[in-house]
Design goal:
Strand content: 15-25%
Order of helices and strands: HEEEHE
Structural class: alpha+beta
Number of helices: 2
Mean pLDDT: 89
Radius of gyration: 19 Å
Strand order of the largest sheet: 1-4-2-3
Low-confidence stretches: none
Number of strands: 4
């Protein structure tokens, strides 16, 4: 049992793994192959620039966003 207690103590002290960010993509009921033009996160917003790919927009939003608090998750809304 001591081994199990040591393992539990080590897990409790371990820093949680970073997960995310998560991108939630909103589309209309009849939309097909809809591309992201705008991303929001809280009060922040990013508009897709001419010639910018969806992936570049996501990377820019991720880079410029206020990071989540420790243990938090970054969630971006894509429109």
């Amino acid at each position: 049992m001591q081994s199990l207690e040591k393992r539990i103590a080590a897990l409790e002290q371990a820093k949680p793994a970073t997960i995310g960010p998560f991108y939630i993509h909103f589309v209309g009921m009849d939309a097909k192959d809809c591309e992201t033009e705008r991303i929001t996160k809280g009060d922040q917003a990013w508009q897709r620039q001419p010639g910018e790919t969806e992936q570049e927009l996501r990377e820019r939003a991720k880079r410029e966003a206020i990071p989540p608090q420790e243990g938090g998750i970054a969630i971006f809304m894509c429109w």
